[in-house]
Amino acid sequence: MTEMSSGAERLTGTLDVAIERLERARPFAKQRHQRPVLDVVSRLMPLPGGPEAILSRAVRMDRAGLFGGSDWDVPTALLPQLTVQTLESDDRVLAALEMASLMRFLAVATGTAQHSTLQQEYAQHFLTQVLALNLPRFFNFSDEASRAAGERAALVARLLRFIAERVGLRDVLGVMVAEIWRILEQRPVQVGPVKDMITQIAVALNQQGSEPGAERLGAERLISALFGPTVETLDDPGLDLYRERLGHMDDAGLSREAMGFARSMHDTGLVSDYHVAFLLWALDYPDRPLVPEAMGLGSTGLDCWRHYRGLIEELIRAGVTPATPQALYGLAMLMERGILHHTPIAPALKRALRLELRPAVRERIDLGFGTQASAETHLLAGALEVIGQPLGVGQGANPTCQSARAISMWALNDPDFLLHLMVQAAEAETVLMHFEGQPINSAELPAGLAGFGPIDADPLSVLLVPHLDRIYAEMGRLCAPRGGDPHRWINPEFHGWWVARDCAVAVDVSTGFLDEYDRFVRRFHESYHPGYNGDRPLIHPQPAGIAFTDSTGTFIGWHAITILRVASGRAGETRVYFYNPNNDSGQDWGQGVSVTTSGNGERHGEGSLEFEQFLSRLYLFHDQPLRPTGHAPVPAEAVERVRQMAADSWAGNRVPSTRAADPAEAPSA
Amino acid sequence: MNDYDPNKGYVALLGWSLNAIDAVDRFDRRYIVVAPPWAEDYCSQNGIPFMPWDFDRLNERSHELAHRLKDEGVDVAIPLFEETVEWAGAVNSVLLNNPRLLGQSMLFRDKSLMKRRAQLGGIRVGVFEEAHDRGDVIRFLKRVNQTLLKLDGDPNDPIHFKAFDKSGTAGHRVIRTPEDVDNIPDDEFPALLESHLDGWEFAVEAWIKDRKIQFLNISEYVTLGYSVFVPATPELEAHRARITEEIEKLIEAFDIDFGFIHPEYFLTSDNRLYFGEVAYRPPGFKALELIERAYGFNGYQGLVLMFDPNTTQDEIDAFFPEAVTGAKGHAGCFGVYPRRRVVSRLEVPEETANHPYFEFHELAEPMEQKVTKRTAFGTHWGLAYFFGEDPHKLRDLLKAQEELDFYV
């Protein structure tokens, strides 16, 4: 129990006065007396002993009617995701309301109080979720960080810690560990946030002492992937001591280390700093091919290693450093893709090793990634990661889904073109593209959607997106007079010849209403569904547009994705596998349309939906102008199902009122 | 509503006040709320006994209301607002079979009649006059200042302008210059004009039964329109005996058998008490709440005791504490006005927030960024409440609030 300050003691007395007034008031008169209680709560909370005082009165405040007339009156209807937003609200009264509510959950969760509509187990579960969702917030409690984040953030952190100390972190760890695995399953290029979370878990476990259980095991697997994946690193000895140990090991021991690293890396997609140290050390170890072992290469990768050993060693020395550990995984995956055997790739990579950066480019990369490694190293590492994990590209917190999607598509389908763009942008500070024969030079264009571009994405995106964004905007400008959806013309010109030249749009751009939607639905079946297109696979990734909806099915905005393949899921159902550039594909789009990222046959980085569910959110796709038709008719029921799902979500107010226009439905004269 | 005592009276509350309803609902008397029809839904949803009534300016229908209440079995009507004082007088003259009550209530409603009646009762009042237009105001301003031997160009002594039928600080203006006169809107006439008295202004809340003061509270104004606290400082309480005499004069002059009055006084530097005005209804500015905080009894419930013909003296003696000594401390409040022309958010000043006497506030975030210019005494944006042991410390603290920004 924290010692109570005299200020807290006095305010506690005031709080009691305010609560008594609230208690006394008849239900219809409660509202006026809520505000004073909340005012005192917000002032008492930051004081030593304040949270305890509030906790001990929390259920009493609830009974007195503090939450009457607000959403908080029904605790089981509250959403843990929204909690911290309210806590950090500019409205202090609202923030205090959330604090009082959390304290009520805490009192019930710890069994110190009973509540008429809130069960102990429910309260525990709710708080667990709140903590898991906000672990980064409350472990950032170096005072420096708190100060920078402001007083209110510090207060929220203290409150969350106060709760954590009382409900324990075991369940919280479970929730977080599951979340981290879910993200890692998608193999993002950007692993910074995940690494931070794992570090915080490590700190938490260290501080909390051990609470055994399955959660702890899952957490330790993640921690060891970063801090001790092998026998000799298990005790996290530090890099210097580890290198010294390597000098004393025999071949069998070294081989075991190499395999340990490889297993952990391919298990999680994370590369430990020790792994980098080992690989760089192994480059100069003459007796045994430890490098391919440490990279965990399969037969394709090994074949590349044998053919291009010199280039690969050069790429490792230039790109894999303590500041760029993930380049090791990127390179391994690049080799595993076998694309080194594609004629232009090896020379293009060699060209990438000889970059001469413009000063402004160097400045920009330094700004985004620091100077621990050179800008050349960061760019090369970025290229290896993006080409090794094309579906791991994310747009960061930027409105540049189009550019991120293009980078991912090129990495997947046209990696030498991507490297070509990288050289242009790095050395000439421009990207030159053509739109229907007309050259577009990004250096001559004004800044696009993202201003001067993101710096919270991977290095290659940081370099390219500002250019791509401008070119994309310029192409849009050139299409503006044509009417209709400009993507029809932009997408093939921007991405490559392999984007199908025909295009179907579900919405009439001028009216915003659905336009021949049934036809749209049929056409997507005929073009993409193996059951209706003569079992023809999708060959090249195709850009597509979705009407993005939230978990209630409410329309949020248009979003760019890539359709990768249409195939059978585990249960034999037809699924669309696609890439979403928004960093995390696993999303609930409402009304049962929930994108999965694993468990339904997805490859790393793919999201998937059952065919009709996907189609119900689709508003634009590309279609081959010359394709055979008439394989199998699309059943009317399928069309109706899709139409209904669309109408229930994003298209509800986009259905044109055609009923009166339909002569069959018109009233007879 | 809780069980009520069938041997006690049945009261009607005239006017809509949630605080009053809440207090009376918790008391042991049967009650009914008489308020405009818009309150009907709210009352039926919350189980509040209700009778719809439009209190417009003309009360020729007061007889109808009185008879409806009589049929309902109501014993007495209690006015909650200035606008319902006449209605209560008219209704009670029927319910209590006492025609004098209507005339009495008219005196309370007309500030000029009220002042003359007080003067006739031997109560000292300042110089006053009625004004029907702006010319009257200018004339009064000039005459008062001539009397004070001011020369042309000397700054004028202010006069006070009070719309006849408005309560509290609404419609109360301080006039110093002809420009101030120009700013008076037409609908505030007719009005009462008063000379300014330099002195200590305070208010009294008196609960009266059987022509006897049952409880007398002195509310000390720190600054009119800004702040008030109860009980008053010992310096002001030292005059309690004289003040009690003055209230007894009012009881005689206005022939008050029962009820609640809320007069205002000035204590001038030459130690004379001047009567300002009196209202026959609960005061604004949450004064009853301050009294409850300090003394622990609910003022509205006290009102019901005073009005109910079936109340016994024993009941009254048990209800009210000893004045001054019966208080747990001093409670005050401060009405916050934004001081800046443009404000963006509410921020309680640190000096205030950290002061041990500060309790809580009812201030809301600003709805508009631009602050409209105050007319008359204006309406504050909310109240901040204080409570403490030392009345001088509390007084100085309330005064200090005037120099602080709550909205920045």
Describe it for me?
- The complex is a heterodimer of chains A (669) and B (408).
- Chain A is built from 29 helices and 8 strands.
- By secondary structure, chain A is of the alpha+beta class.
- Chain A folds into 4 domains: 6-168, no CATH class; 174-227, no CATH class; 329-482, no CATH class; 502-654, no CATH class.
- In chain A, the strands form 2 sheets. In chain A, strands 3-8-4-5-6-7 form a 6-stranded antiparallel beta sheet, sandwiched between helices.
- In chain A, a hairpin with a 2-residue loop joins strand 1 and strand 2 (438-441).
- In chain A, helix 10 (170-185) crosses helix 12.
- The radius of gyration of chain A is 29 Å and the shape is globular.
- Chain B is α+β, with helices and mostly antiparallel strands.
- Among the domains of chain B are: 10-98, 3-Layer(aba) Sandwich (Rossmann fold), CATH 3.40.50.720; 128-195, Dna Ligase, domain 1; 332-401, no CATH class.
- Chain B has helices at residues 18-25, 40-46, 62-72, 82-95, 100-109, 111-120, 134-147, 178-182, 234-237, 240-253, 287-295, 299-307, 313-319, 350-353, 391-401; strands spanning 10-14, 30-35, 50-52, 76-79, 128-131, 159-163, 172-175, 191-195, 199-209, 212-223, 227-230, 259-268, 273-279, 330-335, 358-361, 383-388.
- In chain B, the strands form 3 sheets. Chain B has an 8-stranded antiparallel beta sheet with strand order 13-12-9-10-11-14-16-15.
- In chain B, helix 3 packs across helix 4 and helix 5 crosses helix 6.
- Chain B is globular and about 65 Å long.
- The termini of chain B are far apart.
- Chain A binds chain B through residues 7, 10, 14, 17-18, 24-29, 32, 35-37, 39-40, 43, 90-91, and chain B through 18-19, 21-22, 25-26, 42, 46, 48, 293, 345, 353-354, 356, 359-362, 365, 385, 387.
Reconstruct the topology from this structure.
The complex is a heterodimer of chains A (669) and B (408).
Chain A: H1 6-24, H2 30-44, H3 50-64, H4 80-87, H5 92-109, H6 120-133, H7 135-139, H8 143-149, H9 151-167, H10 170-185, H11 192-208, H12 214-227, H13 239-247, H14 251-268, H15 273-283, H16 290-294, H17 299-307, H18 309-319, H19 326-337, H20 345-352, H21 359-369, H22 375-388, H23 401-413, H24 415-428, E1 432-435, E2 438-441, H25 459-479, H26 487-495, E3 502-505, H27 517-528, E4 542-549, E5 555-568, E6 574-579, E7 607-610, H28 611-617, E8 618-623, H29 636-648
Antiparallel strand pairs in A: 1-2, 3-8, 4-5, 4-8, 5-6, 6-7
Chain B: E1 10-14, H1 18-25, E2 30-35, H2 40-46, E3 50-52, H3 62-72, E4 76-79, H4 82-95, H5 100-109, H6 111-120, E5 128-131, H7 134-147, E6 159-163, E7 172-175, H8 178-182, E8 191-195, E9 199-209, E10 212-223, E11 227-230, H9 234-237, H10 240-253, E12 259-268, E13 273-279, H11 287-295, H12 299-307, H13 313-319, E14 330-335, H14 350-353, E15 358-361, E16 383-388, H15 391-401
Parallel strand pairs in B: 1-2, 1-4, 2-3
Antiparallel strand pairs in B: 5-8, 6-7, 6-8, 9-10, 9-12, 10-11, 11-14, 12-13, 14-16, 15-16
Helix pairs in contact in B: 3-4, 4-5, 5-6
